[in-house]
Amino acid sequence: MDNLNFNLSDFVKSTERQIEQLNDANGVMEFPISVFPPIFKNLINECRESLNFPADYTGTAILTAVATAIGTSAKLKVKTGWYEFPSLYTVIIGNAGANKSHPLSLVFNVFNEIDKKAINKFELLHEEYEEYQKLNRKQKLEETEVKRPKLVKSILSNFTPEVLHQRLSDNLRGCTVVSDELATFLEGMNNYSKGDQSSTYLSFWSNKPTTIDRVNKPIPLFIQEPFVNIIGGLQPRALKKSFTANKTDSGFLQRFLFAFPANAEKYPINDIEMNSSTLNQFNAFLINYINGHQVEIDTNTGKIKSRLYYWSKEAKDYFYEWQKGNTIKVNQYSDELKGEIISKFDIHFVRIALILHVMEDNASSEISLNAVIGAEALCKYFIHNAFKVLDILDTPVIPKETLPLNKLKFYEALQNEFTTSDAISLGEHANFRMNEKFVQRFITDTSYFMRVSQGNYSKIN
Questions:
Q1: Residue ranges per domain, the chain?
Q2: Looking at residue 194, what DSSP letter applies?
Q3: d(CA 257, CA 56)
Q4: Residue 193's pLDDT is what?
Q5: Which burial class, exposed, middle or buried, applies to 271 when counting CB atoms under 10 A from its CB (0-12, 13-18, 19+)?
Q6: Could you say which architecture CATH assigns to the domain 400-459?
Q7: CA-to-CA distance for 363 and 360, rounded, in angstroms?
Q8: Which residues contact 430 (CB under 8 A, 6 or more apart)?
Q9: DSSP 8-class letter at 389
Q10: Backbone φ, ψ for residue 363 (5° rounding)
């Protein structure tokens, strides 16, 4: 135990310098693949090598997929009165062609297959219900009653708020919003009501009880413990439109985890074939977990009977020491948005630790030391990326029309995503006659461009 205390003491000191030292010399933070158990680590590596999927995208999709499988079936007791389900709101950020959609399709395909079977079954049951409803009173007395069937579905992509509430009511485990173009989902939150729907998702993230009252439905829809995950892809230049000031002021932005690789370029197809057994093992894990951990209601309390996980002594000590360091940073940035973001990582840490433990050994009810060490590494990665997002959001938008005419024409001739060499080549064109140094200075102007990775830029206007 002396060794553990010594290590934790060192950890507190390193945590106090955590934010300042997030970047290495190149400002790069690698996704911590090593914290994943073998099945999941192998899938991340296989996807990167054979399909050119950035590890950040596949890893974040895996975390969210496992959180989907767990849902309300398990929660972690942090301390008396504080329990956490593993809800995650995640965003994978990259330019067009950066392989954002494919990792989502691959990782969540098993849920789509499960949902497809559920829909087929529901369709048959609903037909029976419709036929029963056509009977007169006498005929119904002579037949076995056919109750209205429920559609238990996990994945939502295109839906209205009313449908979301109904799905959450019918699926006790919970649902996940999967959106290839998250900007459309975020910007469309107000399409169906005068109020801002983001407030609803604030409540869902905290798993707070929700009551939905409708004029045409005399009985309110009551969701005791709603569970929602969100994951989707977003281009850097869409961040400002997607996370507007009202979504920041409400705390909506602060609840998201961002996967934002330093280099998410599009690569040519290679001849390396993916090992199908790796994906099969991952899918089998999800299916086996879902089948082995059915979600039911406790008839005495009316609440979901979730399996309770606890800290091991070592994991609890580690978390408490990490949280001390995190609190120092929250207080340091108490008057800034950074402080609000860092404060949410107390909860992110707990939820990620639960997910990692279920991946590693869900037979044990004690959260392992490995799980909290992994949670610390992932929190460090996600904090780094949250600050990258803040840098983009904090950059003032200066209308491109204020540019001198030669720069404006050059700006409009550039592609939305381009490389340094692309810009230099365009500048050399007879229409512009801009020398290399002039072009390089211009494309580093953060009022109009964002550096995505070494030698790669994106327009932000």
A1: 2-114+225-394, 400-459
A2: S
A3: 11
A4: 52
A5: exposed
A6: Orthogonal Bundle (1.10)
A7: 9
A8: none
A9: H
A10: -75, -25
